[in-house]
Amino acid sequence: MLPKPVICIIGAGAVGGYYGARLAQHGNDVHFLLRSDFDAVRRNGWKVKSCDGDFTLAAGESHVYDDPRKMPKADLVIVTLKTTANDQFEPLIRPLVKEDTAILTLQNGLGSEERLAELFGKQHILGGMAFTCINRLGPGVIHHMAEGWVRIGEFGGGPSPRASRIAELFISSRIECKVLDNLRRGRWEKLSWNIPFNGLGAVMDLTTDRLIGTEEGVAMVLAIIQEVAEAARLLGAAIPEDLPRRHIEKTRLMGAYQTSMQIDRREGRLMEVEAILGEPLRQGTGAGAKMPRLSVIHEMARAVDAASGKRE
Amino acid sequence: MLPKPVICIIGAGAVGGYYGARLAQHGNDVHFLLRSDFDAVRRNGWKVKSCDGDFTLAAGESHVYDDPRKMPKADLVIVTLKTTANDQFEPLIRPLVKEDTAILTLQNGLGSEERLAELFGKQHILGGMAFTCINRLGPGVIHHMAEGWVRIGEFGGGPSPRASRIAELFISSRIECKVLDNLRRGRWEKLSWNIPFNGLGAVMDLTTDRLIGTEEGVAMVLAIIQEVAEAARLLGAAIPEDLPRRHIEKTRLMGAYQTSMQIDRREGRLMEVEAILGEPLRQGTGAGAKMPRLSVIHEMARAVDAASGKRE
After folding, report:
1. Per CATH, which fold does B6-181 belong to?
2. pTM of the prediction?
């Protein structure tokens, strides 16, 4: 039998903690890099309340670290840092990388794969998206409320045996996962929700139900999605024509939902402004798209962050 | 001795109540149109706490009405309605107008003089601005905290004996007042503060100190003022070059100030979106100005209003 791959989770907040713990629960060799939660998780392990079944990992059942230099070289690095910490890629990830390490970023927005490729080489990099509704209730305590599926793809594009093997790791850990032929299209599809709802919700401080509870709000959300769709099209990552309508319908079912950026704003934390707004704006306008609304929302989000955001 | 002019105050909230009561205090013949406060003011009169001296008008000392059809024909109508009630000009003002009635609007933003001129004839109309920090504490109870000066001008432009006589009414009631040669320039100077601070403050729900407490915020405020300045210039109402700097300096002294639009938003009332944002946007872009930020802020303000504003 082949040895189990060494999996390192960098940034074990709610998303990293959940997926890492699921993988470990199903017998994978998972190593977590933690920061503020390190002591608590080393002492108490993980406790996951999940719509797909609660479970715990006792203290001895997971490998936790407070320093990446103490971690083993990885076959697979899963990056779930908040993108506002992307300036830490070099010190956090370099110690884990060997010749054939696969680095999979499940972070929000655009720009993380590019940055990782610059630092570690394009051939190492995959990206993906976690579609999940999940909260960290405390150190090592995670509440997974809904969804949970993952889409991954090669940064270089196209299918690959490696991507399929990684998907199989997720699937055998009871996490629904598929490999995308076109990671960029997947990213832009997700952005076409995140930009209007995270962006507007944060700068206007409105929950999703109030944002689309009126004709004026729906018109503005749809106008922003059109800007994003045009950018995606010009970048060769066209999104489906019926996606705007589906976004509105799906979001109506979510009730008074606070997006991650709105929560960050309300809690005085830095928002993921550049990954979710700035980088899509730069790539879109660079390709010739007109994005007047996104441009102003980006300015506003920077101003909100400066006024209220703190380095965590 | 000539008879005293009949002065009718339409919309006696904080601003209308204060200036009307000051005029009455100094012996002018003032008639107030009230709505929700009618019963209380008829019973208790006016009580004004003012940085320029407290005073009261007993119940018998002021003429109050709940129906404009019961009021006398006016020599001077002073309009201090919230601009969101401008669709009520016809029923509220028509009963007061005779051949030589002067109608002075002290309302915020742009568009009120034009609308009044359409309804009652351009020759009747003057406009002005009240620079004051004032609150309504309860029915007939007003707190005047700072400033209080007034600028007025003919809608048709230029000085006039009539404008001078109205200014004299204010001055002899201890209200600092000057006649503007160019009312439009005065309006655009005030808009160059109101648009960034009211507009951004309301859509982002930030007090003035947080808005200009950071480089990013100041940059955005200045960029918006530049849009307004360019519109004003193209409309022949150029504002002084050092005004943006003075706005920032003056606003720093105001501390954690909530603009009227931010207060309206927080209290779930309609904001003065069209007078302060929409009409300047239409006039500015109509004259060829590029106003990308104002355009988006206007959309956002309409969405906030739709989501939270109620007809008062």
Report:
1. Rossmann fold (3.40.50)
2. 0.89
